[in-house]
Amino acid sequence: MVFRFRMVRTLLFASLALLLAGCTPAPVEDSPAEVRGIWLTNVDSDVMMSRASIAEAMQFLAEHHFNVVYPVVWNKGYTLYPSAVMDSLFGLPIDPVHEGRDPLQEIIEEAHRHGLRVMPWFEFGFAASYQAGGGHLLAARPHWAARDAAGRLLTKNGFEWMNAYHPEVQDFLLALVKEVVQQYDIDGVQGDDRLPAQPVEGGYSAYTDSLYRAEHGGQPPPADPHDPAWKRWRADRLNAFAERLYREVKALDPDVLVTWSPSIYPWAYDEYLQDWPAWLRGGYADLVHPQVYRYEFDAYRRALLSQGADSLGLTPAQHAKVIPGVLMKVGDYRMTPTLLRQVVQFNRTLGYPGEVFFFYEGLRLNDDEVADSLRASAYRTPARLPDFLLEPR
Q1: For residue 277, what are the CA distances in angstroms to 130, 193, 238?
Q2: Helix (H, G, I), strand (E, B), or coil: what is residue 291?
Q3: What is the SS3 assignment for 156?
Q4: Peptide bond into 172 cis (omega under 30)
Q5: Which of 289, 243, 227, 239 lies closest to 264, judged by CA?
Q6: What is the mean pLDDT of residues 100-117?
């Protein structure tokens, strides 16, 4: 299988690179089976600005025994790779700051050189812009806009949204994902708290209104966006898109993992109509990294306990694919080494084989304090991916 070939290839590259560098050897069969992931952003970070900084970051992650990197490839209405889809629809093949380069290809080459898996992250999902009134996407295609009950552009926490229920918008996002799967030697793809998602306040565009009326004897959508049946109707359409994305990616390459990083449940459903336990029950999620983003340990402990198999209505096998996302840095917040050790130990106590940290720059603060603390404790030795991620699907 293609994924097994990639695994062998990357381990060979890693062994050679680490031998030459005099570093810790690559994972072996008796290494712990864990996902040790990190999100790589283009906000509050300069890593993606040059090949040299990418190479240094991938070596640093390998030396600190990470094994998966999730680089952003879709942000603020731009791709971070040359996209024929974006060029054909908007005349914008790549974020202008990266014109003449291909940051994704550079990350793949440098990551695989060190045995790291690469799973591109479509961060903005169905969001068109942030505090930009819809930006260039909705300026070019205003009929893609999502609307609230007052007919205004759907906006939540500063993000302006495309209509996730419109077939053109769905086809557009799926085309971006498939383009990456077809053109790059990747190990997975990832949606997050905006893919697939839609703020609960939305669903009132002319298109969505007509779709609802056609299925409800001409009755308009409920005026209350929190109406339970209305929420269920919209969430079911997002579920269908998640399944479609999964099936179409697997049709292109069954060994590319489809992973998701939604908000924690049920908040994800109540606020963004993300019924992600259904994605696991339906078999269209290889991994789910719920964003258990909390600033102190007791809050993290309570939040993670709420994501247990029984609470989510999952079987043990389904819940085994849930591996938490952990907040390391955002704005002025910095995770301390003490909190990091508490969180990782608690994850292992509950049986979670790993975690994914948001985001890379948090590792490098204060002369790599957090990264070094992690390597001195839970990440003392290299890890291999859990076996269920390596099985042919």
Answers
A1: 28, 14, 13
A2: strand
A3: strand
A4: no
A5: 289
A6: 98
Determine the Cα–Cα distance for residues 355 and 342; give it in Å rounded to an integer: 13
- Output Rg (C-alpha) for the chain, integer angstroms: 21
Distances (CA, A) of 323 to 12, 293, 309: 27, 13, 12
* Confidence band for 389, pLDDT divided at 50, 70 and 90: confident
Q: What are phi and psi of 333, to 5 degrees?
A: -80, 135
Does residue 147 carry a pLDDT above 60? yes
Cβ neighbours, 10 Å, residue 215: 9
Rounded to whole angstroms, how far apart are CA atoms 47 and 55?
A: 9
Tokens of 255: 């060994």
Peptide bond into 254 cis (omega under 30): no
Q: Which residue in this structure is represented by tokens 């306990």?
A: 305
**pLDDT score for 31:** 87
Q: Which runs of E-coded beta strand occur in 48-158?
A: 68-71, 74-75, 78-79, 117-118, 127-130, 155-156
324/344 Cα distance (integer angstroms) = 10
What pLDDT score was predicted for residue 10? 43
Q: How, if at all, do strands 78-79 and 35-40 pair?
A: unpaired
Give residue-wise pLDDT tens across range 60-71. 999 999 999 999
Whether the bond into 196 is cis, omega within 30 of 0? yes
At 350, the amino acid letter reads L
- 278-305: pLDDT as tens digits: 999 999 999 999 999 999 999 999 999 9
Cα separations (Å) of 117 from 11, 35, 66, 309, 390? 10, 10, 9, 27, 12
The pTM of this model reads 0.92
Cross-strand bridge partners of residue 330: 333
Residue 296 corresponds to which tokens in the numbers above?
Answer: 């102190």
Beta strands in 242-374 (DSSP E): 257-261, 287-288, 325-327, 329-330, 333-334, 354-358
Summarize the confidence of residues 25-30 as an average pLDDT.
Answer: 62
Look-up: residue for tokens 């109540």?
270
Residue among 122, 157, 129, 130 nearest 144 (CA): 129
Q: What is the pLDDT of residue 358?
A: 98
* Dist CA 198 CA 328 (whole Å): 26
The model's pLDDT over 164-179, given as tens digits with 9 standing for 90+, comes to 999 999 999 999 999 9
For 251-261, what is the mean pLDDT?
Answer: 97
* Distance of alpha carbon 321 from the chain centroid: 14
Say which residue the tokens 């209505």 belong to.
Answer: 313
